[in-house]
């Protein structure tokens, strides 16, 4: 009896170690698929660093590599996800929320859904002001501007979110921004109201984006909003096909290859690519269609993947950019008559992370304001994109929620510009955010040669406060 128990223990132990070693033994023969988990996996670490020294981080780096590349990892991830989602209605992937009726949501939208960690009122105003200055540039260049924010899926379809997420009733970033855009006279298309007005579900159940039918709805709405004559494709035959691999589905069930219903339009597009097109996620996509007359520049994100073919079909020339910072000069490449700025709701705070690349608008300003110096002011200069870039952060004591920032070059002559209310934390090598930054580009060709003091003027009510000289620059054309 004792021998039998001992044998069972030995067999159990051997089987346990065999099962544990199988994933490692099969690593050379079973490769990991990065696309299945929508992220880049770590590479095999080197024993030495770039400067030839011993890599002291190798053990921890190899542990990470091993955890991401062992054989059958994605099968085990899928099995774990099935168990947790079916039995406990929770996700095994921290980036995905398992909702009701098999709906999936992107976890990074949870702050928006709960209206927590929202922008300050000044942060909202900074965002609206930034978009407003972009609009001013486009209009001064002879174009028309339109802003639109793609709502998060749980903004439009909250009924399938788990009950454990209880809304606070506070306004979200998108709600506050919509109000501020009106205050700053920005032309915008309210996509949230647009989707609320539809009876049909127009977002993918197991993906974070809208359906092709939803994209067509947005296309027709923005073309109507811009006053562009276009085919609404109502006469195009379409059918539903189970062909779509959802991004959220792939993250949580990487090996199941679940396919969702997607609306397919039976049409042959007549536009042609004039850029080196590779995928719908290219940073720049350029198209031409001789059947139309409008020229459109669109700054877009992943929500533009299903949207851009309709716009390309409905315009003569179109350019679609995913690059940041936003380069407003792109509108001159195709003589764009219309500029569309689209961004998903969850990324609204990103608008004030990097200043758009454009010549700062000139302003007339009485420079006899009262001077208040501060040790908290910071200012740097650099040459970027053929222009002088001036950026920094100022003492928050200067500011009200709606204070504008003006930068002057003061020498033999005085030149005044309005700055973007943006703190570029990356340039200061910090992750901290601030509502009191400034950033702008100056075309020095319009400035006489000489040495200039850089001053900041902050509007406070009906008067201005001056920081005094932040730094000096020398202009040599």
What does this structure look like?
There is one protein chain. This protein is α/β, with parallel strands linked by helices and 477 residues long. 27% of the residues lie in helices and 23% in strands. It is built from twelve helices and 19 strands. The protein has helices spanning 2-25, 58-69, 73-87, 110-114, 121-140, 153-156, 173-183, 191-196, 212-226, 247-252, 308-313, 330-333; strands at residues 96-98, 104-106, 144-150, 188-189, 238-244, 260-265, 272-273, 284-288, 295-299, 317-321, 338-344, 370-371, 378-384, 387-393, 405-410, 414-418, 437-442, 450-460, 463-475. The protein has a seven-stranded mixed β-sheet, sandwiched between helices. The protein has a five-stranded mixed β-sheet with strand order 12-19-18-15-16, with no helix packed on it. A three-stranded antiparallel β-sheet has the order 13-14-17, with no helix packed on it. Helix 11 links the parallel strand 9 and strand 10. The protein is globular. The model has no long low-confidence stretch (mean pLDDT 88).
How is the secondary structure organized here?
Blueprint: H1 2-25, H2 58-69, H3 73-87, E1 96-98, E2 104-106, H4 110-114, H5 121-140, E3 144-150, H6 153-156, H7 173-183, E4 188-189, H8 191-196, H9 212-226, E5 238-244, H10 247-252, E6 260-265, E7 272-273, E8 284-288, E9 295-299, H11 308-313, E10 317-321, H12 330-333, E11 338-344, E12 370-371, E13 378-384, E14 387-393, E15 405-410, E16 414-418, E17 437-442, E18 450-460, E19 463-475
Parallel strand pairs: 3-4, 3-11, 9-10, 9-11, 12-19
Antiparallel strand pairs: 1-2, 5-6, 7-8, 8-10, 13-14, 14-17, 15-16, 15-18, 18-19
Helix pairs in contact: 5-7
């Amino acid at each position: 009896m004792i021998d039998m128990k001992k044998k069972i223990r030995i067999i159990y132990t051997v089987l346990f170690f065999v099962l544990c070693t199988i994933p490692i033994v099969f690593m050379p023969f079973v490769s990991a698929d990065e696309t299945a988990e929508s992220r880049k996996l770590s590479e095999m670490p080197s024993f030495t660093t770039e400067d030839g020294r011993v890599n002291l981080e190798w053990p921890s780096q190899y542990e990470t590599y091993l955890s991401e590349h062992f054989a059958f990892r994605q099968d085990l991830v899928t099995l774990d996800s099935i168990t947790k989602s079916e039995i406990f209605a929770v996700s095994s992937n921290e980036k995905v929320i398992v909702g009701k009726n098999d709906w999936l949501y992107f976890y990074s939208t949870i702050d928006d859904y709960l209206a927590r960690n929202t922008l300050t009122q000044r942060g909202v105003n900074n965002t609206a002001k930034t978009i407003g200055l972009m609009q001013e540039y486009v209009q001064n260049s002879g174009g028309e501007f339109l802003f639109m924010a793609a709502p998060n899926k749980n903004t439009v379809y909250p009924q399938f979110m788990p009950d454990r997420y209880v809304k606070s009733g506070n306004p979200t970033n998108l709600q506050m921004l919509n109000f501020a855009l009106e205050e700053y006279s920005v032309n915008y298309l309210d996509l949230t109201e647009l989707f609320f007005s539809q009876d049909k579900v127009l977002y993918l159940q197991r993906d974070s984006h809208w359906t092709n039918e939803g994209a067509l709805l947005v296309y027709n709405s923005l073309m109507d909003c811009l006053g562009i004559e276009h085919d609404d494709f109502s006469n195009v035959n379409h059918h539903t096909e189970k062909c779509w691999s959802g991004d959220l589905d792939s993250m949580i069930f990487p090996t199941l290859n679940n396919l969702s219903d997607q609306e397919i339009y039976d049409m042959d597009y007549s536009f042609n690519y004039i850029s080196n097109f590779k995928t719908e996620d290219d940073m720049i996509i350029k198209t031409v269609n001789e059947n139309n007359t409008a020229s459109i520049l669109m700054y877009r994100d992943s929500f533009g993947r299903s949207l851009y073919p309709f716009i390309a079909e409905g315009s003569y020339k179109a350019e679609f950019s995913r690059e940041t910072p936003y380069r407003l000069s792109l509108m001159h490449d195709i003589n764009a008559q219309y500029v569309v700025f689209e961004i998903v709701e969850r990324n609204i705070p990103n608008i004030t992370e990097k200043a758009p690349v454009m010549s700062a608008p000139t302003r007339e300003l009485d420079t006899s304001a009262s001077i208040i110096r501060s040790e908290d002011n910071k200012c740097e200069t650099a040459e970027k994109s053929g222009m002088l870039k001036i950026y920094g952060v100022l003492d928050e004591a200067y500011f009200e929620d709606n204070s504008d920032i003006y930068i002057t070059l003061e020498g033999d002559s005085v030149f005044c510009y309005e700055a973007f209310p943006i703190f570029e934390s990356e340039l200061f090598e910090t992750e901290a955010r601030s509502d009191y930054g400034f950033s702008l580009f100056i075309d020095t060709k319009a400035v006489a040669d000489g040495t200039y003091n850089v001053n900041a003027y902050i509007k406070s009510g009906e008067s201005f406060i001056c920081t005094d000289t932040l730094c000096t620059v020398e202009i040599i054309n």
